[in-house]
């Protein structure tokens, strides 16, 4: 049996970022994953399909763990300095520019695989970080250790386990930790889209009665990450369409904002479900990222919530480790859990409220949201408060 300070289950962006923030203090870190290919070579000409909107807080975290300069050096980080929210069938509108803030950019669109590659390359160079490429099959606890059994029968002991193994977390299910779920009644289609008009570093969200279309600007001037969320029936119909017909359908909704659209990648579809775990901190076990919560992607805040879990948790662990406290005791994480619950619940409520407000053909609702959105657009302090919350 190999003994570690921390065992991180999950090798996505949040799990790897967590490991990157912990190894510096000299802790012995295990990263456990069944993904045999964490690093994927990136095509110099082709954009990856999955990308995330990274806010100022996450960018600062990337700087703190030493990957930001490497990400910038790749030439594949696309800053955006403007956001536009439009309604197709009404007059609701909100536009904001980074010039109103203390930040030079409102955020950055970065391919998920680029972030993962950069984190993985950094971690495999560290002598006190060990990767185990096997599934977890069992989990047990004693008073001073947690024990993990792997599919190859190897056993690992750690003072603390961090579950960053995604929305369908094996660790959460194995420990029978309750998670509240509420479907958004939408499915999402993601793809890379080429638009007739250059994106000009502007992130766009276009609401229409049956859903939401988001264009996240990528490092090529006419290419964006498309996130199209709508009812499952509509998604089923869209997925039967050939790429040209799909692009034409998308253009009918959005052409006046981005020009004609062409789909230049595969399409991926998944159901949108709000998930919330009330008890993310257990003796010698903490859930973070999608294992603890998932939200609607309409504001691009899901990844940022996960990175803020990682930052606040690792700051706490590092402090405890330096002070020679037992990092597996629940009592040390009460403030952390309260802060993360507050931030998560605020963001979940906001996403649900926005979706509800913009869904449907109701003329009264359309008039109300138009008045409300345009009022926000013209009340600078209120608009600034809303936008800044998503940046921090």
From TrEMBL:
Alphabetized GO MF terms: monooxygenase activity
Pathway: Cofactor biosynthesis; ubiquinone biosynthesis
Keywords: FAD, Flavoprotein, Monooxygenase, Oxidoreductase
Any one Pfam family match given in the protein's UniProt record, by short name: FAD_binding_3
Matching InterPro entries: FAD-bd, FAD/NAD-bd_sf, Ubi_Hdrlase_CS, UbiH/COQ6, UbiH/COQ6_monooxygenase
Keyword Flavoprotein recorded: yes
Listed transmembrane segments: none
Cofactor(s) recorded in Swiss-Prot or TrEMBL: FAD
Domain (FAD-binding): residue spans on this chain: 4-336
Protein family according to the UniProt entry: Belongs to the UbiH/COQ6 family.
UniProt name for this protein: FAD-dependent monooxygenase
Organism: Frischella japonica
């Amino acid at each position: 049996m190999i003994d570690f300070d921390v065992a991180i289950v999950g090798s996505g962006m949040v799990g790897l970022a967590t490991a990157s923030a912990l190894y510096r203090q000299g802790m012995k870190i295990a990263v456990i994953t069944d993904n045999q290919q964490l690093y994927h070579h990136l095509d110099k000409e082709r954009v990856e399909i999955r990308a995330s909107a990274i806010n100022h807080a996450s960018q600062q975290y990337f700087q703190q763990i030493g990957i930001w300069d490497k990400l910038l050096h790749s030439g594949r980080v696309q800053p955006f300095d403007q956001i536009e929210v439009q309604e197709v069938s009404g007059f609701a509108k909100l536009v904001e520019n980074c010039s109103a803030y203390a930040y030079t950019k409102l955020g950055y669109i970065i391919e998920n695989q680029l972030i993962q590659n950069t984190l993985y390359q950094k971690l495999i160079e560290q002598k006190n970080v060990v990767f185990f490429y096997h599934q977890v099959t069992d989990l047990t606890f004693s008073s001073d250790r947690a024990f993990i059994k792997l599919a190859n029968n190897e056993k690992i002991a750690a003072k603390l386990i961090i579950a960053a193994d995604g929305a369908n977390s094996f660790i959460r299910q194995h420990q029978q930790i309750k998670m509240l779920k509420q479907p958004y009644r939408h499915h999402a289609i993601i793809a890379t889209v080429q638009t007739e008009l250059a994106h000009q570093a502007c992130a766009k969200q276009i609401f229409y009665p049956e859903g939401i279309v988001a264009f996240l600007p990528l490092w090529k001037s006419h290419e964006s990450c498309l996130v199209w969320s709508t009812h499952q029936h509509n998604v089923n119909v869209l997925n039967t369409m050939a790429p040209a017909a799909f692009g034409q359908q998308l253009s009918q909704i959005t052409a006046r904002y981005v020009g004609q659209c062409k789909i230049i990648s595969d399409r991926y579809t998944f159901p949108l479900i709000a998930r919330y775990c009330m008890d993310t901190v257990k003796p010698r076990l903490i859930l973070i990222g999608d294992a603890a919560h998932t939200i609607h992607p309409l504001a691009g805040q899901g990844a940022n919530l996960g990175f803020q879990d990682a930052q606040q948790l690792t700051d706490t662990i590092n402090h405890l480790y330096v002070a020679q406290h037992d990092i597996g005791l629940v009592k040390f994480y009460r403030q952390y859990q309260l802060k993360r619950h507050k931030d998560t619940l605020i963001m979940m409520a906001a996403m649900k409220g926005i979706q509800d407000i913009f869904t449907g053909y109701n003329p009264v609702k359309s008039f109300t949201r138009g008045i409300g959105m345009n009022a926000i657009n013209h009340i600078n302090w209120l608009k600034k408060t809303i936008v800044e919350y998503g940046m921090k």
